[in-house]
Amino acid sequence: MYIASMTSLFIIITSLLRTRKPIPTVRRFTKFKLPLPKTLHLSLENVSIQGREIFIVGDVHGCLEELEQLLELARLEINNKKMLPIFVGDLANKGPRNLMTIRKVRQMEALSVRGNHEEAIVRHYLNWQNDQNYVIPEVFKWITELNTDDINYLLELPYTISIPSRNILIVHAGLVPGIPIQQQNLDNFIHIRNLYQDNDGNFIASELPFQGEAWASFWTGPEHVYFGHDASRKLQQHPYATGLDTGCLYGNMLSGIVINSQKMLQVKAKTVYSEPKGFKTPK
After folding, report:
1. Among residues 42, 81, 253, 255, which is most buried (max CB within 10 A)?
2. Using 50, 70 and 90 to split pLDDT, how confident is the model at 202?
3. Residue 136 burial by CB count (10 A; 0-12/13-18/19+): exposed, middle or buried?
4. How far apart are CA 180 and CA 10, in angstroms?
5. What is the secondary structure of 60-97 as a DSSP string?
6. Residue 75 to residues 49, 101, 260, 261: CA-CA distances in angstroms?
7. Using CA atoms, how far apart are residues 97 and 129, in angstroms rounded to an integer?
8. If pLDDT is split at 50, 70 and 90, which confidence band does 275 have?
9. Which of these, 78, 81, 115, 8, lies nearest to 263 by C-alpha position?
10. For residue range 30-54, what is the model confidence (pLDDT) as tens digits?
């Protein structure tokens, strides 16, 4: 009887091991192996918020005039109470006033996560600093005006900001459901758009808009995620995720949300600043 029991136990354990999904491989570096921020994931406690109204802002991309108008709308919405703006990344690049937008955000009592354009800015800047023959792509020529403080600021932007008291998580691009935040591949935080499933039912992250479905449509919490990056879908409102990149750069809107009231605020772009491939310019 003892041998039979041990045999049954062995069969059960073997079955469990065969059916258990493998732990995902975690990369503690990005694909370009850039320096990482000291804090990968910032947790914002009430003592740091200090009673300020939280206002989360979508991708600015150097549209400084629209940003200033949006911040003014937010001040009116909260009756000029103290405000804590938090940006979803892509503060600059391709827009009309990239350098001044970075410095505006730096000077404010504001926070931001790291976006794919922050990584690209840092990558080209460091390459330019380390190689006198490095040719900076045309769209990044403005980065030669950045100073050391600007670059250090961009380097230290975290990949995520969580606000436990509000059950909120802020990230630039997105996340893969079912994987703890410390085990997510860093590139997904700044590049993911879609998810599809392999033959075993595991979620696979994709940067391609035509491969799979919007990652946010699969997200079931528990945190409500605020993100940007996906301008082609414009404003996204899922049960547990809100996409705030509404394509100001492309002539659409700059968006932000006041967390306490859940009031969505928007400012129309002054013009079309950039015409990306596959994105239809509004008339």
Report:
1. 255
2. confident
3. middle
4. 30
5. -TT-HHHHHHHHHHHHHHTTT--EEEEE-S--SSSSS-
6. 17, 19, 13, 13
7. 22
8. confident
9. 78
10. 777 888 999 999 999 999 999 999 9
